[in-house]
């Protein structure tokens, strides 16, 4: 009750002598400071909106235009060619201004219109420049004069430091490829995967589609491209993610890991304190790193304060204004933890203090509370029905609102994880499974992302996929890890830094009146038990040695995966590699079909494999560039399929294409802020990256992060229920394929490896 009394600004009592008034100056001071910070925040937001709205110009450029026009008018010259006089004539008669005042007002109006016109012209020029993508196809070190001129003009037009969303209106729209080009690329991609009869059949279906239904669907798609900001993204979000009725745990959500070799502190509450602080500091960031080529930042808008809410037919992404609290789960109990007090972000030490209060709380969970999170892990329709029945009003709705409107979700896990103990490899695999699905009820899989802090100080996160793709979350997590370890830091005894205000109110325990989620838990548990994960650092070499061989590191890894899969299964398969399309407004991803004629020829031909390796790598790079620049295959065909469904027409070609399984689904986790990690002086601060579950029941999911110059970390997943897949066996095939490719490029590498056995993983 002490905290409640301190929160009262004034008290009064009525006595026979009159009213006895008691003011709490400390409380009034806090109210005043809270209001002051709130107004400062509002002013800052308005300022950012103005700066973003006038980019690539600046607000101060308006004053320059006004002064320039006034100066020319003073010199008896009219730069408006009579427009200022016309404006003066049409000013309202009610304005009681002198002739000079009317002239000045007319100049201000003309200058503002001229300034806005110049902004639109600059934006149009910047959009035209950003539509040029030929630079991506030029050889390294052989940049054309045209590209050099283009880069100079882009730098000139974007010389001012941009805010996060400054470029949004200047980014080009994603172009719709021609039907002919898409079908040609599709047939080329499936040729090595089909026998002669199968390929002839697909060629016939593609030709029939192009002649009949294809052009009709294409017209509707082009109409959408003219009207919508992006012709793919809204349908991709809705039909690939939100309309799926299967569990999002494992099937859709993905995870990110902590450092491989180090844990900054072994104190759970302290690690949580710094991690939560770093995430809120990231939310404050308004500027983007300086890059020549801007990328779309639309996905960042829903990073915080966002929840995927279930529906019986389709889910909905809900986003709220910045909240000042997080939802915390510990041993079956849910808490609301305020991280702001009177508009001030609590210090890391204060957040640690509050987290420790939760850890020390001995209260047991209420009936049904401990397994409540399983509702978000099971099938979507039962969760929607339960939500409608039990969470529409009363205490359950209020508590659920606290979770869904929180900035993000935090799990204080009572397990210890990481690469540790007598069998670090097995523990690393267990760590991956823990982040991917946990106990199926101790994560809130609907939140945009959930942070997990383990008993031994290790951390990680689980991210929902519909609102954004992995590079967005990876950027957030890189900043969080670096800020935690290098900027916030810890005291010598492993605690957070900063002072503690002991009068902080304790975290609020959430209340529930609910039945147990047994069905959802059973579905989720079966799915989690079926997942086979293997995480391993490949230490033999990294991108440094690959680049010395004049090959793209990503192409090298993709070819190693093709070789490993062929050795594992004795055949080739449709391979998915995620590529981003954020060069375009509201762009998300495109598929790179990594299994090509060239890659298959390399795997099969042992006589000319050295030459074919380079040819296959060049082909892969070209496929990646085409995907990034809007000339991919799969998003175009997907949108044509959606149009056909809206029109109620069937296409045998599209139906077959969209039903083809991706037995090898791959993704590279990009390292975007290497400057935050000093790997020269602190090589132990290596990030493990993250991973995801298998896309096909009989296939593999492979994620990899090329970390520094000498290491590549792999995350492999598959399902125990498939007798033909084994994550550990496939991981060994990947390692061997990587070694064999490097030996092929550099025969001396094998001897050097033998002389250095300590470097073997």
Automatic annotation (TrEMBL):
Domain Carnitine O-palmitoyltransferase N-terminal: 1-47
Keywords: Acyltransferase, Fatty acid metabolism, Lipid metabolism, Membrane, Mitochondrion, Transferase, Transmembrane, Transmembrane helix, Transport
GO biological process: carnitine metabolic process; fatty acid beta-oxidation; long-chain fatty acid transport
Enzyme active site: 465 (proton acceptor)
Keyword flag Amino-acid biosynthesis: no
Keyword Acyltransferase: yes
Assigned EC number: 2.3.1.21
Name of the top EC class for this enzyme: transferase
Reactions catalysed according to its record: (R)-carnitine + hexadecanoyl-CoA = O-hexadecanoyl-(R)-carnitine + CoA
A GO molecular-function annotation: carnitine O-palmitoyltransferase activity
TM region(s), chain numbering: 50-74, 104-126
Pathway per the UniProt entry: Lipid metabolism; fatty acid beta-oxidation
All copies of domain Choline/carnitine acyltransferase, residue ranges: 174-735
One of the Pfam families matching this protein, by short name: CPT_N
Subcellular location: Mitochondrion outer membrane
InterPro entries referenced in this protein's UniProt entry, alphabetically: Carn_acyl_trans, CAT-like_dom_sf, Cho/carn_acyl_trans, Cho/carn_acyl_trans_2, CPT_N
GO cellular component, one term: mitochondrial outer membrane
Membrane-protein topology: Multi-pass membrane protein
Membership in a protein family: Belongs to the carnitine/choline acetyltransferase family.
Database matches in PANTHER family: CARNITINE O-ACYLTRANSFERASE, CARNITINE O-PALMITOYLTRANSFERASE
Protein name per Swiss-Prot or TrEMBL: carnitine O-palmitoyltransferase
Organism, scientific name: Cyprinus carpio (Common carp)
Lineage, broadest ranks: Eukaryota, Metazoa, Chordata, Craniata, Vertebrata
